[in-house]
Amino acid sequence: MYQIIDGKKISQQIKDELKEKVAALKAQGKTITLAVIQVGSDPASGVYVGNKKKACAYIGIESRAYELPEETTQEELLQLVAQLNADETVGGILVQLPLPGHISEDKVLLAIDPKKDVDGFHPVNVGNLSIGRPGFVSCTPAGVIQLLKRSGIEIQGKECVVLGRSNIVGKPMAMLLLRENGTVTVCHSRTKNLKEITKRADILVVAVGKPKFVTGDYVKEGAVVIDVGIHRNADNRLCGDVDFDSVAPHTSAITPVPGGVGPMTVAMLMYNCVEGGAKNACNQRIL
Length: 287
Ligand code: GUN
Fold this sequence. Notes:
The protein has helices at 7-27, 43-59, 74-86, 105-111, 123-130, 139-150, 170-179, 194-198, 244-247, 262-279; strands spanning 3-4, 33-39, 62-68, 92-95, 159-163, 183-187, 203-206, 223-227, 231-232, 238-239, 251-254. By secondary structure, the chain is of the alpha/beta class. Guanine is lined by residues 48, 94-97, 119, 139, 265.
């Protein structure tokens, strides 16, 4: 029988730990503030931003919302980022993606002060992660590490296969697994003999962005499978990149969708806000 890794429960534990920490900081007169910028009214972004604000309220982080119209120019957005960079009362800055097509995401993400980059997207933080220096770590892959650690799954010495090579998930995921002494392989859409490689995995992290892409024949018996995908199917139900029903019986542990990786992203964002705010410096020692 396989274990279902409960991201809802683990994310709640992390949020409760952070809540205590924030209360202690408040008692010393320190407040943590996150600025959240959303441009336009993409409905999915609205839901994500709402979840982030709710988590801030629960933990005791002050969130400042900047809801800008779709027509906002790149220059106006860069000006707001510069103003928040200079504002000493703001500890973290988050620009919700995707941005409207007329704004360069790259330019905007580069403009965020790396010391306030709680998403961990700035090249300085990405570089720091890759050479083992302190810095903010991208929230979703950091959340996957926490799911594994808090479920008692050892990474050291394991064959870890990451399916997907995005800047936000696949690449930092590989770096983090490597930091935990896993033996890491990254696969992607051009990989030949994909199943042969995924079947080697003791720990398989799937972030390909294709609904139910990974089926039982991709997985070694007893593997741990982490599903980063989230999709809405024709009858409005959520599913991941993994075909849960076909894969789960082959695993020793697996994350569900919803209730697996998803809630961890917000919890780790909160972690980044608290750690950055508490020490006034980047810190990637995760809990
Ligand atoms: N859009 C989808 N996921 C994310 C995320 O983790 N951070 C930001 N800033 N935008 C996103």
